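fwd from M.: "can u put these together and see what the complex looks like"

so here's what she sent:
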Amino acid sequence: MTVVDTLGLTAERCAQLLGAREISCRELVEAYLERIDAHDPDLHCFLRTRPEAALAEADALDAAGPKGLQGVPIALKDILCVRGEETTAGSRILAGHRPLYDAGAVTRCRDAGLIALGKTNMDEFAMGSSTEHSAFGPTRNPWDHELVPGGSSGGSAAAVAAGFAPLALGTDTGGSIRQPAALCGVVGLKPTYGAVSRHGLIAFGSSLDQIGPFSLTVRDAALALQVIAGHDPCDSTSVPLPEPVSVPDAEDMRGVTIGIPTDLLAIEGVEDGVRASFEETIGEAERLGASIREITLPTARHALPAYYLIAPAEASANLARFDGVRYGLRLEEPGDTVVDMYGRTRSQGFGDEVKRRIMLGTYVLSAGYYDAYYGTAQRVRTLLLREFADAFSGVDLIATPASPTVAFPIGERIDDPWAMYACDLFTVPVNLTGLPGISLPSGLSDGLPVGFQLIGPAFSENRILAAAHALEQAIGFDPVPTGYRVGG
Amino acid sequence: MAISSDDVLHVARLANLSLSDEEVARMSEQLSGILEHVAALSSLDLEDVPATAHALDVQNVTRPDEVRPSWPREEVLAGAPAAQDGMFRVPPTS
């Protein structure tokens, strides 16, 4: 018997109910697990749940009396290592793999008393924008089961939208938090590079990867960021935040100047419905007191090709470790040399997209091509950093759509790599420059959610969260997918 | 820039991937297609622009050089596909 409806239930509300003892941690976890059991077979957000462990953790917190966020459930993208619990990164090559340690962000969740419900589905090694590249089958969009949830953190985004968890962690290398958040109608935050430890995050593009939260509200995103952000001695690229994360309560945007990169927005491939929602949201920001200024980021249109050189290059090096020697899958035939075994294991352990990126990355790093491709892309990165720095000398935040399109049908882009990569048009400039960005739902286009992206200078998470919160209040988006609404 | 089947086979060897004939053909076509989209970068004037490998200005991060226990050997080897005498076992090198 469910004592609480988890659909549309925020982490903040969960904490209130737990703190007031209106509900126990066990009851709350059971309510989420029941909903997952009932509805996840339709969606496939979770690769696996951990009911016994979650309920044991809930009981321990109930005995002690939960405080703060203790007892609030969370879903973890399956790219985050959890000690002793299967972690696959969506890949056959890691099926059955049980890490020796918790990821830094997972440790922080544990320390805060968040209860992990399970591991969510994802594009293999976070390479994709639809979650169709999971070795374990696609996730479906809660707004329309024939559509993709976005990716690569599609399982986490869809789980929050579907009421399977009030919070989820994802990772964002080129948009893998913000794009699925947009397509599923939830909030997704990619923190500044270095704000959250990457220790125990199975690496894809080490200079780009960042862990961040999915939630139903901007305030919940801030609460989750409070938990996971901070320096970790196990990740030498992580840094302490210059100021603590505050939970936003801003109701207006007075004094905030928002830049709109008109040249980037003019790129073809942006759907009319996405443009309309974006313009409406800019109008909302003006009504809230924000000043709007047109800016240009001439190199931003080149971020996508630069990203698709740098990210595969880093991936080809990072994924060299999966060779059938120390963990994961090994495929071997009698008479094989060690090199034969490497090739057999990797060729059958990796899926098509991962092999494509390893090949592309290896090619652009190979002798004779390094400077023409990888070197060029890294110089583009410098131009981007300069242009964003110039822009932020005149504006506080930059706004773009989070995704050029709403959710698209499963299968539509799977055989056309560049069509899939084009999903990342507005998100990759942020990763290449290490900046923070948020996607918040700005409305519906033909019944499907549209995401609005706010980008800020490095470590301006509080500024982003405050502006996003004010906008969110004004927009009044209902994050419960239409098909799941009572009477809907 | 077109990537031939020979290029694909060479890169696959570097990457320790053994690809089927069908995969080689598809990879040649798809990688060539991707590099066509990337070609636009050559129109940029990057002559005096330095490369950026890392967006944050963090340098030479060190920690105290203290001896700490490592992972217990048996725990590490428990996850290995094959182990023997406290070591990872692999097929012969040739």
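replying to her w this: The mean pLDDT of chain A is 97.
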